[in-house]
Amino acid sequence: MPKKHPSYRQRKGYTQALVTLTDSLTKQRRDYWLGEYNTPQSRELYHQVLAEWEANGRRLPEPPNAPAGPADGVTVVEVMSRYWRWAQGTYSASEVNTIAQVIKITRQLFGSTPAEAFGPKRLRMVRDAMVSGDPSADPPRQPWARPHVNKQVQRLCTMFRWAAGQEMIPITVYQGLKAVETLRRGRTVAREPKRIGPVSDERVNAIKPHVSRQVWALIELQRLTGARGGEIFKLRRKDIDTTGDVWTFTPNEHKTAHHGKTRTIYFGPKAQAVIQPFLLARPVDACLFSPSEADAERRAELHEQRATPLSCGNKPGSNRSDEPVHTPGDHYTRDSYHRAIQRGCDLAFPPPKELARQRVEAKGRKKKSLRWETEAEWKKRLGPRWEELKAWRRKHRWHPHQLRHAAGTRIRRDFGLEAAQIALGHSSALVTDAVYAERDMAKAVEVMRRMG
């Protein structure tokens, strides 16, 4: 487990903030004064000193000359703020959330730095912060994988290219950032991501009793067509061409739409059987798979299973909030779909009894009753064993992307690489071959059995 970074603190009797660092070689300790305590400038300088300390192999850096303060000209945070507003109206919600991650790290380190002074050296310091993570953050930020770090650095460079196009900064700033080399496999301490593979039918079928029929329909469509989840979340009746024996759907929003490419998803007889129940008694412009509809069906099922007489207890709908914080939408999103599958995996593959959530006595009630412990109580009870629970979940959960991998592997095995390329919507078979469709190793085994 990575060690926590030295803390940002205030020494008793002083108004200044400081951080104490230790030299990794000489073990010498030194205090770095950062300016007025609990100000944005001193906190930014704290992150800068830590980044330089990490970049030097935890050797003591030179003390900062002065706290960071308001700078002349356009600052880095101003560039990112304007780009953020532009990105919200241009990119998808998932891409905007990803951009927010790199903005947060860069703002912590160099928010008040003049944009013209943000060069390759500072970009490498931001990249090092992505690689090392921040265990002292709340919540702790885990180290990012090498490919993700490279993509985030590219997004950061794109911000400065956009700013140069808006005449906020000289184009030479962006050109300098592009001189920073990418992280190469085997030549960096950044961790390598675990390769995503297909998920077995047994693991998928196990969660069927624990998800709504809407979520299960999305799962089935992904398994049968190889579609991305985001391509079918907003599927409507009027979007489906049902003229032929194989239905087709051409989504307006998909991964490569901004490159001017089209995407067609094909629904065969099995996929049509999945869609058919959702076409009945529904407006043509309504999304077929609705979380609000799933929630209404869940509540109706709970009502049917109610054991308390209607004359006693809460009447249906009487205990609902007038202004709920979260309300189900009219279509699923990447996050809501992923959460539904995770909950299904947790119910289908419960952890050992000693790690599972337990019932505790509900206090403050006249009649003795039990309730489920809160997550905070659960975590406190397990203590260090909470990591065991997290490891159990990682082992028994699967990701929606694995459904697409499973479909690609099956199509390639039964119908060949070109068919898998068309079904998955790739412009090049190289992507299908290298990323999504696992090779049929049984063929190589058979060849060696005969030849070797």
Write structural notes for this entry.
The structure is a single chain. This protein has 452 residues and is mainly alpha-helical. The protein has 3 domains: 9-177, DNA polymerase, domain 1 (Orthogonal Bundle); 201-303 and 328-396, hpI Integrase, Chain A (Orthogonal Bundle); 403-451, no CATH class. The protein is 46% helix and 7% strand. The protein contains 18 helices and 8 strands. The protein has helices at 40-55, 76-88, 93-110, 120-132, 146-165, 171-177, 201-205, 213-225, 229-232, 269-279, 291-304, 334-348, 375-382, 386-396, 401-415, 417-424, 429-436, 441-451, and strands at 9-10, 16-22, 29-36, 240-241, 247-249, 265-267, 359-361, 370-372. The strands form 3 sheets. A 3-stranded antiparallel sheet has the order 1-2-3, covered by helices on one side. Helix 4 runs antiparallel to helix 5 (146-165) and helix 15 (401-415) runs antiparallel to helix 16 (417-424). The chain starts with 8 loop residues before the first strand and ends with a helix.
Short description:
46% of the residues lie in helices and 7% in strands. The chain has 18 helices and 8 strands. The longest helix has 20 residues.
